[in-house]
Amino acid sequence: MEIKAIRGFNDVLPEEIGTWQFVERTAREVFEGFGFSEIRIPILERTELFSRGIGEATDIVEKEMYTFTDRSGNSLTLRPEATASMARAYLEHKLYSFDPVAKLYCIGPMFRYERPQKGRYRQFYQIDAEVFGVSNPMVDAEVILMLIHFLKRVGLRDLELEINSLGCRECRPPYREALKRFLTGRAFLLCEDCKRRLEINPLRIFDCKVETCKGAILEAPQVTDFICEGCRDHFEKVKEYLSMAGLSFVINPRMVRGLDYYTRTAFEVVSYQLGAQNAVTGGGRYDNLFREIGGVDIPGIGFAVGIERLISLLPERKDLVLYPHLFIAALGTEAQRRAYELMNRLHLEGIRAEIDYEGKSLKSQMRRADKLKARYVLILGEAELAKEKGVLRNMINQSQEEVPIQSILSLLKGKILRTEKS
Ligand code: HAM
Question: Which of 244, 272, 289, 364 fits 360 for a cystine, CB–CB 3.0-4.6 Å?
Answer without folding.
Answer: 364
